Each structure stands twice: as structure tokens, then as C-alpha cells.
Amino acid sequence: MRRLRPPPRAGGGARPAGYAQGVATPRPGTRAHTVQIARRLEEAQGPLPFARRHDPVSELVTTLLSHSTTDANQFRAFAALRERYPDWDDVRRAPVAEVEETIRVAGLANQKAPRIQAVLDALADDPRGADLEWLGDLPLPEAMGFLTSLPGVGPKTAGCVMCFCFDAPVVPADTHVHRIALRTGIVPPRSSAARAQERLSRWVPPGAAYATHMRLIAHGRTICTARAPRCAECPLLELCPTGRRLLRGVARRMI
Ligand code: SF4
């Protein structure tokens, strides 16, 4: 049976405002705790039905473009690529310097351009089709294994393709998701993003991976920000040891 315990109380006194009286909260690092986090985010943000944004190759390419850049520059680089080349085979065959110039706004263009071309080369001769639509028919571990065998494709990028294109039970751990997983104790301190992705993907309720990922991103952008988390108004406070610690620190400074 899973161990449940009530949330610790600041200084052993009364619970901070917003805590449900007499309701046990699950221990961080358990499935029940992750499920509660997914539920609280759903309550806070509302329904979020799955919607495919791109075909799988486009998702793969745009995710490769997203590394170490802003969303805006990722979108600009992807749009420039699509505008200059009618299809992915044209990107594959183009001079690398030209692709590099096209995606320059995304940064690290000298690494990203050859990587994208290497990935497209690897897909071009696949007898199952270069469009990757067949990934949706494979067992998830096999599909993830195929994607991570491609040059420069790690678990997060593979997770994005499977989650965003096939509604697969993967919660890709980008910087926001990783940060929240660490702060809330879904994973132990200093755990990697890959571990956070693995744990969230295993524990988030069936059918909720896509919505949970999107909600965690929104939460990380608006409330659990990197530099100044707004813990006092966070719907996850009761489930978050870091938030409670931060608020206790604030309370002590005010005495
Ligand atoms: S309580 Fe604070 S640290 Fe915890 S998830 Fe919310 S904003 Fe982030």
C-alpha cells in the first residue's frame, strides 16, 4: 500500500492558507503524488484535447531547431526552411551552407543544419516510408528506439515526436518540465531530464501525457518560473516541498 502523509506544517504550527484541512497529500516521488500534480494542473487550467500540430518529420525537424533557442526563433527558422524548400528531400539535397543560412536565426546553425540533413538522409531510404507515419503502428519502446538511433536525436526530441504526433504516453521533459519535476520532488534532486521524462511518462494517468506536458509547460512559463516562482499562488503548493520551503523562508524574513 502506498504511504500517505499529511503535508508538513511551517514551524509545526497552523497550516498555511490554501491547505485542505484533514486531507492527506501523497509523498513526493510516488505515483500518487505525480497523479495529484496532473490532476491539480487539470483543475487549474481546464481541458486540453490532443491536437496534432505537425506531421512527424516536421515535428522532428522543428524540435531539432528548438535546442538552445527561443520559441520565436525556432518558429522563424522552421518557417524559413519550409518557405525555401518545397519538401524535405529538397532540404536533404541542398548545400549545407544554404540550409545553415536559412536557419541561422535559430542559433547553432552550423551544428543544426548538418544534423537535420543527416536525419533526413537516414529517413530517405527507409522502406517503411520517409514520412515516419508508420511510427504510430510500432510499440512505443520500438518507436523511441528508432528515433533515438537517428543522429542528434535524444529522448526529449523522440518524446516530442511520439507525444505531439501520435498522442503516445510520453511526457517530454523540456527545461520547464524538468524544473517542475525537480522542485515538486517527482524526481530526486539532481535527476536528469531523461529521468523526469521516464517517471512522468510511467506515472501520468493513461491518455493524459499530452495534456500534462502542455500544462506543465504553461505552469513553468507563468507560475513556476526559473527565477521567481510564484509559490503563494501555485495550485501545486501543497504537493511541493520546494514551494513550502521557499514560503517558510519568506515568512521567517518577515518576523
Ligand atoms: S510551489 Fe513554487 S516551486 Fe513548487 S511548483 Fe509551485 S511555483 Fe514551483
Please explain how this structure is put together.
This protein has two domains: 22-49 and 172-254, Helix-hairpin-Helix base-excision DNA repair enzymes (C-terminal) (Endonuclease Iii, domain 2, Orthogonal Bundle), CATH 1.10.1670; 56-166, Endonuclease III, domain 1, CATH 1.10.340.30. Helix content is 55%, strand content 2%. It has twelve helices and two strands, in the order ββαααααααααααα. The protein has helices at 31-45, 56-66, 71-84, 88-93, 96-102, 109-124, 140-148, 155-166, 175-184, 193-203, 209-222, 241-254, and strands at 4-5, 25-26. A two-stranded antiparallel ribbon has the order 1-2. Helix 7 crosses helix 8 (155-166) and helix 9 (175-184) packs across helix 10. Residues 1-22 have low confidence and may be disordered. The protein binds iron/sulfur cluster. Residues 180, 183-184, 223-224, 229-231, 234, 236-237, 240, 242-243 line the site of iron/sulfur cluster.
Can you describe this structure in just a few lines?
With 255 residues, the chain is mainly alpha-helical.
Secondary-structure element series: EEHHHHHHHHHHHH
Principal-axes geometry comes out as globular
CATH fold title of the largest domain: Endonuclease Iii, domain 2
> Could you give the distance between the termini?
41 Å
Query: Largest beta sheet, briefly?
Result: 2 strands, antiparallel
> What is the strand tally?
2
Class from helix and strand fractions: mainly alpha
Q: Assign the CATH architecture of the largest domain.
A: Orthogonal Bundle
Q: Number of domains in the coordinates?
A: 2
Query: Strand share of the residues?
Result: under 5%
Low-confidence stretches: 1-22
Indicate the radius of gyration in whole angstroms: 21 Å
Overall pLDDT, averaged?
90
The main sheet orders its strands as: 1-2
Can you identify the CATH superfamily of the largest domain?
Helix-hairpin-Helix base-excision DNA repair enzymes (C-terminal)
Helical element count? Answer: 12
Level-1 CATH class name of the largest domain: Mainly Alpha
Helix content: 40-55%
Task: List the ligand species.
Answer: iron/sulfur cluster
